[in-house]
Amino acid sequence: MKGGWCDSHIAAGATTDPYWWDAARPTLLRSNPAPPQADVVAATNGYTTKSLGWFARRVIPFQGYIAATEELPPDLVKKLIPNRRVVIDTNTDIDFCRIAPDSSRVIIGGATASGMSTSEAIANRLHPIMARVLPGLAGRKFTHLWIGFCCGTFDLMPHVGGSRGLWYAMGYSFAGVTMGTYMGDKVAKQVLGSPEGATVFSEAPFHTVPLYTGNPWFMPFVMHYFHWRDARIAARQ
Ligand SMILES: Cc1cc2nc3c(=O)[nH]c(=O)nc-3n(C[C@H](O)[C@H](O)[C@H](O)COP(=O)(O)OP(=O)(O)OC[C@H]3O[C@@H](n4cnc5c(N)ncnc54)[C@H](O)[C@@H]3O)c2cc1C
Description:
By secondary structure, this protein is of the alpha+beta class.
């Protein structure tokens, strides 16, 4: 294993045995009986690089996009989203919005994994989504846009676990804000050896599929399938 993430681990005296993470249940001591000198947690989710090979073969990174509107009249915001709730639709490819916690802007996300790379492309894609979901904002402008990486897994479940010295928590599959907090707590307790670290998300095998090395070339096809599925369900209603 190579890369920045490992450097501190190696500097702390850990073995560089490349086979650690090839075991079905990763075991740091599988081929090196020396006790580890430090605990390292891989919590890299959508930013998992190929240098973290075992993990990169198990997570499928994709882009998420968010836009924030200009400051809006507070009365309009209150009317559009009563009780300041987070709003999310029931599609597989979700659109979601909320009022910013510290201002009267609306923050909206959607068009996940659609391969956009410019501000113009993101604005042009998210603005019609906002106008459809909240028609009262059709004439309003975006002032901020951003991109980040999320990731899914082959069973659409997050995974947490590891063993002495090397641990992980990742693969949040659309729910990292909530599950990331939960899994962070679990992995910390596992590192400390607390029984409270036990969770079903450590029991399920963290699968990869043959030939997958971390290049999510198939995501556009997956998103097309999600769109087709969403349209089919909508047509039935
Ligand atoms: C635009 C967007 C909208 C989203 N909306 C939602 C939402 O509405 N609800 C929801 O639940 N989730 C949402 N998510 C997903 C959510 O943000 C993530 O699931 C969550 O941030 C994962 O948290 P994390 O701490 O595990 O990983 P991250 O926040 O992704 O942090 C991983 C960190 O690892 C670091 N890293 C990578 N490699 C190394 C290395 N070698 N050494 C050291 N550090 C390294 C990276 O720099 C990064 O800081 C959204 C994501 C994006 C991008």
